[in-house]
UniProtKB/TrEMBL annotation:
Example of a GO cellular component annotation carried by this entry: extracellular space
Similarity annotation: Belongs to the AB hydrolase superfamily. Lipase family.
Protein known as: Esterase
Record's keyword terms, sorted: Signal
Tagged with keyword Signal: yes
Length: 332
């Protein structure tokens, strides 16, 4: 008993002084096969060692026009106007207003522009303030197998970055008025878009950045991808769908970052990231407490300064890891 207590105290002291340690890496690597559920509740077995579809990857890299950019504003809140790369008239003849902030929403794997994340966040933004909302559609790659989709994310992200440069050239909409929001694989996608613009984008919000094939991937989201990068981690447990450790300027771990109240499946934990974010746009009510290390996150003993999670603030700043607890249903 005494020796066990000594070991426990030694481990606690080490964690307290070691700084942020990977939650996910501390509990093991992904197995080759993982189970993923789509929004309809259908199960998909993912082979993380599957051979990717190189012909599709070549097509995606060669033709950025495969991505669609759908504009919503208060003048057209539900009917999209399509903005097309290298066709300036699609922008100048649209409702896009370069004097307003621009929000770009990017979905994740097995998703498209019509699934819940996009209209939910879009509506929250437009109800809150007068902004441009661009919903990016990348279904050609997103509906492929996971290994192919993950490998193609950097190219699709660069294409988004090139589109935003084109948007800036046509309208002079400043990069410091742009906010990119990406879910799952889309979180790494918007990171690559910001990288294409040399980190000039005002803000990136990463909603449970995808974990499988991304833990040590050099193309994953990083702090250099925007002026301010924030990540919300909700499914970072064993074989979780999200990265379970800090990768941004500020990393929030709601309810510890591994499982969420009312959720039984990984997909519920995973989706909770965008549900929480949408609620914070409206209410700005979820506040985290800064943690010194991972042990404090797991034991819910954080005692540092407090910071609002999410919201739509383009001037937001901060650093470190934060824990907060939420309820199980909207607005949490």
């Amino acid at each position: 008993m005494q020796s066990t207590l000594i070991i426990l105290l030694a481990c606690t002291a080490y964690l307290a002084n070691a700084g942020p340690a990977p939650l996910q890496e501390s509990i093991g690597q992904y197995s080759r096969y993982i189970q993923v559920y789509d929004e309809d509740g259908n199960a998909h077995q993912v082979d993380l060692e599957a051979v990717p579809d190189h012909s599709l990857l070549s097509e995606v890299a060669r033709n950025p026009a495969n991505n669609q950019y759908n504009l919503f504003t208060r003048r057209n809140p539900t009917e999209a106007q399509t903005l097309v790369m290298n066709k300036p008239e699609t922008i100048t003849e649209s409702n896009f207003n370069p004097e307003l902030p621009t929000k770009v929403i990017v979905h994740g794997w097995l998703r498209n522009q019509n699934l819940n994340i996009n209209p939910t966040i879009r509506n929250a933004f437009l109800e809150k303030s007068d902004v441009n909302v661009i919903v990016m559609e990348w279904r050609l790659l997103a509906l492929s197998d996971y290994s192919t989709a993950a490998l193609g994310v950097p190219a699709v992200g660069r294409a988004l970055g090139q589109f935003l440069i084109f948007l800036n050239d046509v309208t002079e909409a400043p990069f410091d008025s742009m906010h990119l929001i990406g879910f799952s694989l889309g979180a790494h996608l918007v990171g690559n878009a910001g990288r294409e613009i040399e980190g000039k984008i005002a803000r990136i919000t990463a909603l449970d950045p995808a974990g499988p094939l991304w833990n040590v991937n050099p193309a994953r989201l990083s702090t250099d991808d925007a002026v301010y990068v924030e990540a919300i981690h909700t499914d970072g447990g064993i074989d979780g769908l999200g990265i379970g450790f800090a990768i941004a300027d500020v990393d929030f771990f709601p309810n510890g970052g591994m499982s969420q109240p009312g959720c039984l499946l990984n997909i519920c934990n995973h989706n909770r990231a965008w549900e929480l974010f949408a609620a914070t746009i409206t209410y700005n009510h979820l506040i985290g407490t800064r943690c010194n290390n991972v042990l404090q996150i797991q034991l819910n003993t954080c005692r540092g300064p407090r910071l609002h999670m999410g919201n739509d603030n383009l001037k937001k700043t901060g650093s470190g890891m934060y824990r907060l607890d939420t309820r199980w249903r909207y607005p949490f």
